[in-house]
Amino acid sequence: MDGSSAKPNKLTAGFLHQLLDSQAVAVCALDSGGRFTYLNPAACRRLGHSDDTALLGERFDTVIDTERAEPSAAALTEQLTAVAVTGEPLSIYSVLWLHPCARTSFPVIIEASPLNSDETEERGVVVTFRDATVQHHALNQALQRAEQAERIGAIGHWIHYPESGQLIWSLMTYELFGFDPDGSKPDWGAFIARVPEADRGQIAESQFKADPSRRSCEGEYRIVHPGGRTLWVREIAQRLKDENGQSIIQGTIQDITKQRKALERSEAQRQRLAAILRTVPDVALIETDLEGKVSELNRSAELMFGYSREAFLGSDIYMLHDPAEHAQVREGIARLQRTAQGYSVECELIRGTGERFRAQLSVAPLLNERGEVVGKIGACIDLSAQFAREQRLRMAQEAAGFGVWEWDVETDRAHWDEASWRMLGYDPEQQGTLTYAQWQALVHPEDLERILPEFEHHLAAGTPFTIEFRYRCADGSWLWVQNRGQTLRRAADGSPIYMVGTHVEIQQLKETERALAKSEQRFRDVTLAAGEYIWEIDPEGRYTFITSPAEPLLGRPVEAIIGCSVFDFMPDDEAERVHGLLQAWADERSAWRDLEHVSLRPDGSLVHQRVSGLPILDEDGNLTGFRGTGRDITAEKEAERAQKRLTERLRLATSAAELGIWEYDLKSGRLECDECMCRLYGIDPATFGHASEGWVEAPESKSLDTTVFGNTFEDWAETLLPDSRDSTVAALNEAVASRTPFDIQMEIRRADDGSCRTLHGHAQVICDASGIPVRIVGISRDITAEQEYRRQLAAAKERFAGIFEQTGSGVAVYRPVDEGRDFECIEINPASERLDQITRDEVIGRRLTDCFPGVVEMGLLAALQRVARTGVPEELPLASYQDKRITAWRENRIFRLSSGEVVAVYDDRTEIKQAQQESERARKQLANLTAQLPGFIYQYRLWPDGRHAFVYANGRAEQIYGVTPEQAIEYPDHLFEVIYEADRGEFYRSIERSAQALTPWYQTFRIHHSSKGTAWLEGNSMPERLADGSTLWHGYIHDITDRVRAEQELAQSKARLEEFFNQSISGFFFMMLDEPIDWQGATEEQKEALLDYALTHVVGCQNPYIFGGGFKNKHIYWVVKS
To answer: Where are the transmembrane segments (predicted)?
Structure first.
């Protein structure tokens, strides 16, 4: 090299062609008209040609897929040829579809550069295109994933061109706004029409228009779909410029309907909770931020912790905790912020005075509208106060007699409290949690089939329920209970997680219902015909609506009732009474239940009905009327009157059975006792004193401690022995205070002979309509002999008490052997050893029939075989078991285990069987005793017009009057015609006096008996005035002929003896000890005593000269002087 500068070699066209032909990238050249002037082999192959001969001179738009071109093929060609003019390179990054010869179109990305010739000044364009099929496929997948993400998150994307009004929406945006993506594209007017006017200020465009300086915004508004569906959405938007510098608004829109409703519910719940907590003085409520600074509290927090509100606000919540627990408190706040889940903990807190106390602390997160935790609220309960309330609740629960249960549905574990287990006779200490299957096993099979669908329906729906069924008790019996329950927590799908409820024993209610059903069978047709009706009235009492069952009750069609006043169908006095009540309820806008009143039918008949009503109020709380139900209770009233008549018959029967009856009026202080009651206490009925008058305080303030029984209450209390006095008086007071029956055993000392007797007293407290006790009605009977027998029986049973106190149900587990024909005993419990009088070692491993041969005749073996074969549990009814060792009555419950072993659970029912037999014997004895009651029991009715009839007569009518009960009822005059004419007038007058004054009737009279001749009768009865003005006597008549004749003979004997003494005074003298008594000088008392004694000891002697006898520990002598 010579060092001179060298010029670079100019590349030849051939070299450039060779270079381009060797490239794998498709390259072509276009002239200024957009026609192909060159294509390298890669471009020819990609466009489906072997060389460039078919394409040279053709326009570039001939290879563009015009159906997919965006913009059009011609416009794209113009953009490429413009490169030759401007000299500016062009890159088209949007996908362009080329359509090769006889092949499917494919996507490409194009880059164009100017091609100019310095020699010819021709201009053209060099175009390279790369296959974008892979990139396009990836883009489609990304778009699909984006659409899926939008649907999952309910989030749509959109772009708005404010200048042109063009809207570009994603598919989810169309769905959220309620437009069809395949239909015509909505414009701004169509969109804004679906946003309520009140919410339009929250739209991004509105916010940007109101503040042009804003670059981003956020808002929440509603979208109302054409069908009426309303969605809440949250919109986030930004103001941007696209690649062409055009102003656009781009944003997202998200469905927040559920969150919004949840926040509304949460806010409503928070407000309700706050209102509740403001009324609960024992719950402290404190709100803090996430740093623990107090921002709000209620009054209870001030009182509980001893800080004023001013001292609390802004202070650190950690001051209420021990410093050693501050780290735990911070961790709790951090966990709350992470999980947004509340928690509850029992901890020790510190009051302002330094006092420390245990508390239950429940913490819940406070969320903003986006669901973010911004603070917390804590509810604190002082457990010392809560314990006192729990004790009161437990006492109330025990008094009310109900049990409580809890069921964790997720873990299938149910917990019963002690009251629930004791209700069924189980020992709570020996019971654990129950599974759902175990609970079903406790329910009576018939009831389980009935209640299970209803229970599982409520379980699935999570709604409260009330069902009634029978539980199996520990002794094998069945107990009716009412089960109430409700769901406290649910899972996300709505299924229950945690439930609570109560058990209430309703055994007595069910038994009462059965008894009532029997007694009401006679009136079933009347009740069904009367039915129950629904009514509505306006404030003046006029009917505005009534259903057809009222027609037979009021005797008028519905059309004739509507518009009439309820008082139009009542007697005047009844209308006045009911009008006053209705006016009071209208003034108070209150409801009422079971108002009983009388209505008047067009035919003049009276009917009784019972109505209940509720006030109808408009939205301003003004009374617009009442609505309710009513039903005919005329039959019930008749039944009540019949019951009263039966009660009177019972009173007569109990009198004959020597049961003392008493009634005490709490308002007047008046006590009534029958003669038998006086005899029980050794009191002369003639000297029995009623309650004293002149109470200073109101009757409601009286107490049995100051009320007399007999002459005074203290006199009656003195008859009680000291050991039973306090308990008896307390029981009486408790019965009045609690409105419960009085039933007690007491020991008294009789007033006449001083003997100690044991009485059984039973009484019922009667209340008025308002629930205030007004009187006590009771009976007493002497059970001294019965108690002595019980003491002897108790002494005998006491020897065996130690054994029976530990006796439980026997449990034996058997394994089938000999192909199920027999069983091998593999286990028994200690109760079985006691019940079967055998040891465990004697039966384990042995055959059942060898140990207990009586099981075949008893039927137990066959039952075990059936259960072992079918797996269906069985209950073997009460049956007798007998072998050489034992004889007993047993009940067995048998079931099969999953292992195939069979379990027999049995109880000894020997004592129960014996008690049943003893009860049957007692029932027969009582029936015989009732049949032997003496006297004629009757009901006699007298009408104002003189008509009369015996409406009831027992079988003693024939013995007393010589006529059958049927004859007495059919022809009542016969019982009056047989009365002596001399006694008949006073007899009639006594009935008239009793009817007029309604005083008890008492009369002694003679009759002509068809077989006995003259008979003396004594009658007692109590009158009752009936609604039609007639009088009904409930009475008792018995034969006193023997008593009257004895009294007459006694009087005659006294007269003869007195005459004898008067005529023989000169011939007799009397010696009492050493003192002679002259007859004419004796006092009347001495004469009476001498006559009585003479009648008792002397009458009947034949001409005695000297008589002697004992009298008051002295001797009396009669000496005949001559």
So the answer is: none
432 contact partners, CB below 8 Å, separation of at least 6: none
Q: Please state the φ and ψ torsions of residue 164, each to the nearest 5 degrees.
A: -95, -15
Decide: helix, strand or coil at residue 895: strand
**pLDDT exceeding 90 applies to what percent of the chain?**
31
Instruction: With respect to residue 492, please indicate whether it lies within any of the assigned structural domains.
Output: yes
Helix (H, G, I), strand (E, B) or coil at 593: strand
pLDDT of residue 678: 84
Determine how many CB atoms are found less than 10 A away from the CB of residue 544. 15
For residue 779, list its beta bridge partners. 661, 762
Residue showing tokens 């996430």: 290
Cα 1034 to the center of its chain, rounded Å: 45
pLDDT at 640 over 50: yes
SS3 content of the chain, % helix, strand, coil (to 5): 40, 30, 30
CA distance 174 to 184: 11
Rounded to whole angstroms, the Cα distance separating 285 from 297 reads 5
Asked if residue 994 is part of any domain, the answer here is: yes
CA dist 111 and 126 (Å) reads 8
What are the tens digits of pLDDT across the range 1032-1085?
999 989 899 988 988 888 888 778 777 766 665 444 444 443 455 565 667 777
> Is the pTM value of this prediction over 0.70?
no
Q: Are residues 376 and 437 in the same domain?
A: no
Strands 606-617 and 623-632: antiparallel
**Domain CATH for 978:** 3.30.450.20
End-to-end CA distance of the chain: 213
> Domain ends where: 74, 104, 131?
131
Give the tokens for residue 984: 């008949």
Cα 626 to Cα 794: distance, rounded to the nearest angstrom: 62
Looking at the fold, whether 352 and 314 belong to one and the same domain comes out as: yes
Question: Mean pLDDT for the chain?
Answer: 81
Please give the backbone phi and psi of residue 825, each rounded to the nearest 5 degrees, phi first: -75, 125
Domain boundary among 217, 237, 255: 255
Residues 292 and 412 in one domain: no
Please determine, for residue 483, whether its predicted confidence score (pLDDT) is greater than 60.
yes
Residues 6 or more apart whose CB falls under 8 angstroms from that of 415 comprise: 405, 406, 407, 433, 434
699 DSSP 8-state letter = G
- 838 with 869, same domain: the answer is yes
Kindly state the tokens that stand for 631.
């039903």
* Side-chain half-sphere CA neighbours of 125 within 13 A: 30
| Residue in the structure block whose two tokens are 């989030």 | 155
